[in-house]
């Protein structure tokens, strides 16, 4: 019989209930045989656990079969089931267990699904017991129009680098390209050839230290599931990412051809100045390679991002990959501090003398240059010049 850390499981349930809110009446984990592993109910008077468990157990097998047939999700079945009193969300947690969320009937399930899949993945890993799993369920921000506008405004707010700040780093790409292997190699220094596919997303933390700079960058790494059944979750999970790793498998041409799709998804929902890098994984399988280095570099240039090839198995370039991202964050933060100092210099007293016609001429020139920018770095440079001109005009220098 598999040992299950029920103390950690219950801690996870409490975090899950806290984040979803009052709409979540109860949460439980059941096995394929219908036996309940553990259950947490918000109000025991509202839902009699024993009575419910007995009624639900007889439905588990039938419902799971229906879900996998209807959605063709293999071992990653998920779906909803409504009764007069409650709404149910079912998420398979590995091959033998299911996370069941019991909600009030008027609950909008799309708001709960991102949390349910995240909890289901953590349940599967707690039961697996091979890697440390935090019971913490982070708050997931929905990508509303207000949020998109807020991020655009944040682009202009200058922030100094602080080693105490945690940056969200998201890994995206097709399923099976090695995202989880890369994260586990970097975070825990281990490699397994048979990692369980990620359910929704798996979150890890890691601090990247630079002794020479006397500073560090703390990452919260979101490893996103690449299977199509998780498409509805991607925008919610990617929101507020500071950096992104778009990953493909060098031995799988289709995963390379899907890179543009992943780029478009992350480009739509993240901050304008997100740091992106394209990574071709499994470079150790040279004999099975279907994508050349030249092809990878060409696509990266087209998208305006950096390119690197890695091997989670041999640890080739894995540490370097995350260090590169950390250094970009430090560098951008330093540049923003420099820009802030320059802005303050303009406010305190100008050394520039420029006429209104000259100002208009410069403004038209840099605005026109935006049409010819290839990558985000070029665009950011042009926007910076336009901001300087706005500051000059505002202060009538």
The strands making up the biggest β-sheet line up spatially as: 7-8-6-9-10-11
Q: What is the CA-atom radius of gyration, in angstroms?
A: 24 Å
pLDDT averaged residue by residue: 79
- Which blocks of ≥5 consecutive residues have pLDDT under 50? 341-350
Distance between the termini: 77 Å
CATH superfamily of the largest domain, called what? Answer: P-loop containing nucleotide triphosphate hydrolases
Stated plainly, the CATH topology of the largest domain is called Rossmann fold
How many domains? The number is 3
CATH-defined architecture of the largest domain: 3-Layer(aba) Sandwich
Report the total helices.
12
Biggest sheet statistics: 6 strands, mixed
Helix/strand order, N-terminal first: HEEHEEEHHEHEEHEHHEHEHHH
Helicity level: 40-55%
Extended strand count: 11
The gross shape turns out to be globular
Relative strand content: 15-25%
Structure notes:
The protein is α/β, with parallel strands linked by helices and 397 residues long. The protein folds into three domains: 6-128, 2-Layer Sandwich (Beta-Lactamase), CATH 3.30.450.30; 145-328, P-loop containing nucleotide triphosphate hydrolases (Rossmann fold); 349-394. Helix content is 44%, strand content 19%. The chain contains twelve helices and eleven strands. The chain has helices at residues 6-20, 49-71, 109-128, 145-154, 179-188, 234-238, 253-257, 259-269, 293-303, 318-348, 356-369, 376-394; strands spanning 24-31, 36-41, 78-82, 87-92, 97-103, 166-172, 201-210, 215-224, 243-249, 275-281, 306-309. Strands 7-8-6-9-10-11 form a six-stranded mixed beta sheet, sandwiched between helices. The protein has a five-stranded antiparallel beta sheet with strand order 2-1-5-4-3, sandwiched between helices. A hairpin with a 4-residue loop joins strand 1 (24-31) and strand 2. Helix 1 (6-20) runs antiparallel to helix 3 (109-128). The protein is globular and about 75 Å long. It starts with 5 loop residues before the first helix and ends with a helix. The relative contact order is 0.09.
